[in-house]
Amino acid sequence: MARDIIDDRFIGALHLRALTHAGLEHDPAAEHTAVQAGTLDALMNGGYEGDTTLAELLRLGDLGLGTVQQLDGELIVFDGRAWSAGADGSIRELPLNTLTPFAVVTHFEAMVTEQLVGPLTLGELHARVDELAPVGSPVLAVRIDGEFSALSLRSVEKQTPPYKPLREVVAHQTEWSVPSASGTLLGFRFPDATAGVEVPGYHLHFLSADRTIGGHVMNITVESGSLAIDPCDQLHVELPDGVGLGVPGAADRAEIASLEGGTAN
Questions:
Q1: Which among 48, 84, 6 is positioned nearest to 165, based on CA atoms?
Q2: Residue 127: alpha-carbon gap to chain centroid
Q3: In this structure, what CATH number is given to the domain that contains residue 149?
Q4: pLDDT by residue, tens only, the chain of 265 residues
Q5: Are strands 63-67 and 103-106 parallel, antiparallel or unpaired?
Q6: What is the DSSP string of 168-181?
Q7: d(CA 179, CA 234)
Q8: What are phi and psi of 246, to 5 degrees?
Q9: What range does the domain containing 75 cover?
Q10: What's the CA gap between 38 and 166, in Å, rounded?
Q11: Torsion sign (Cα): 91, 93, 99, 100
């Protein structure tokens, strides 16, 4: 098993493991980890073909997000099942043999819970989660079940070879607004040091209670809901062949930092 630390800030805080595909044969629940298939850097460079099935992914976690083969929709893993939000706004539950080039999941066990009374903007929600997070938690898994308004969501069209870089794909992404919805907002907060491996900061997807609305969240207001936070102290990353871990340069960091602002998965 290869092992790398992407940044000194991880030492004593976040254990980042680079795994071969066979390295996924472990027990993440016992280790309290987030497990990731692929890297953001590979996805940004057009790596849209996956080698991890959803069956393998769901064995490693019951809550998470990402994308699916050929960027065919935003992946939402919720209560051990997987859905995709397509560029046309449609939601479909995915078969277990579906492949993913990029996804992160965890076996979610709430350590912190709180009832939220809104309205809370997305920025206010981030601040509240930051306040409640256990000290020294480098990665947070977050779930909010409740009532939401002013949803701004996005997805991208399924891609075909030859694949364009992600920045070109998302220039033609689909964005839509939903006035209000009941459902679940879920995802992760990653530290800056994971740039190139993951999206630094908050990465959130939404799925409505009736399974008709979903996607990557660009903006949202929490009217009321139950917040649950699960800190993870390890991130295990399954690397595709030929992909390594490294620290991105300034230009790459700037592009990665723009992903939550409407420019990527």
A1: 48
A2: 19
A3: 3.30.1330.80
A4: 233 333 333 333 344 454 444 445 555 445 568 988 888 888 888 999 988 999 999 999 999 999 999 999 999 999 999 999 999 999 999 999 999 999 999 999 999 999 999 899 999 999 999 999 998 888 899 999 999 999 999 999 999 999 999 889 988 899 999 999 999 999 999 887 665 566 678 999 999 999 999 999 999 999 999 999 999 878 888 765 554 444 444 444 444 445 555 433 4
A5: antiparallel
A6: HHGGG-EEEEEEEE
A7: 37
A8: -165, 175
A9: 1-265
A10: 14
A11: positive
DSSP string, 187-225: EEEE-GGGBTTB-SEEEEEEEETTSS-EEEEEEEEEEEE
| Cis before 162? omega within 30 | yes
CB 101 within 8 A of CB 83: no
Structural contact between residues 154 and 215, judged by C-beta atoms closer than 8 angstroms: yes
Neighbours of 30 (CB within 10 A): 8
Write the DSSP symbol of residue 3: B
CA distances to 8, 120, 194 from 129, rounded to whole Å, are: 25, 12, 19
Query: Rounded distance, CA 73 to CA 216, Å?
Result: 9
Query: Edge-to-edge strands of the sheet including 63-67?
Result: 15-19, 234-238, 33-37, 103-106, 63-67, 74-78, 81-85, 91-93
- What the block records as the tokens of 250 is 């300034």
The structural domain count of the chain equals: 1
| Length reported for the chain | 265
Per-residue HEC secondary structure of 111-126 comes to CEEEEEEEEECHHHHH
Residue 63 · residue 34 · CB < 8 Å: no
Distance, CA of 175 to chain centre: 18
